[in-house]
Amino acid sequence: MAKKYVSIIIVPHNKAKSRNISLSEKMIKIVAGIGLFVFLALTVFLIDYFTMNVTRQKYKTLWDETAQQKTAIAQYQQTVDKLQTTIDNYENYAKKLNVMAGLKSEEVLEGEPGVGSGSGQEIGETGPSQTLDLGNLNDISQKANRVARNLDTLTTFFEDQVLQLASTPTVWPTKGYMSSPYGWRDDPFTGKRTFHHGIDIATSHGNSIYATADGTVIQARTDKIGGKTIKIKHMFGYVTIYCHLSKFLAKVGQKVKRGETIGLVGSTGKARGPHVHYEVQLNGKEKNPYYFLLEE
Hints:
alpha+beta; two-stranded antiparallel ribbon; 3 helices
């Protein structure tokens, strides 16, 4: 049986002779097969290329989103840390208000002010920062709600007792740092273990000393231990005492307001350097002045 051929005639545009190419049926099938294979391979390659390109774009998008989420989480962590510090400050503030309001005694409050070692504790100094786990958010929320409820109770209490608040010693008597807290300590002169009935606030000579609440000056005298000493009587049983002044700026019988200057810092009496020895009494009983100091 004769083989079948397909002839392809190529006619050039110039005057050259035309060319005749003859292909057998078998050759045509081979060429067609090769062409189909190349087409399929190219199609698979293009599909794979575009698929990988889409995958790479998705991966890049996910990578960018992950980086943004990491940044957001870091910022969120910082916010949580600040929130924890704020809540702790409010809780400490609320504890002091509870003592002043008589809703809790200072003995039940957690934590006592640190005992100084001579260098003193800076006023307003905060403790070491704590790293929070995001899993503690529920605890923080519950703590915030508890503090908020307590502050609401205290707000209601004090709204009806503005006069009592004005008569309660709540501010620092001078600007400085607490060099010796209330309580037992080694006497700086004898070295013996003695009870310190107030707090010492170290500061510069000549700085102002302020009345810590509204009241009346009932004493302005000089003695061997306290030096120049002022005593102020406030309403609701409060009495405050200020020792080691260099100068009196208030006299007996004078009515003073909270924040009013009553004297200047000195080192008169039994004192190693300029400071204010400050005491708070309530109904004749000594109290730790630290728990009445709201301005940190």
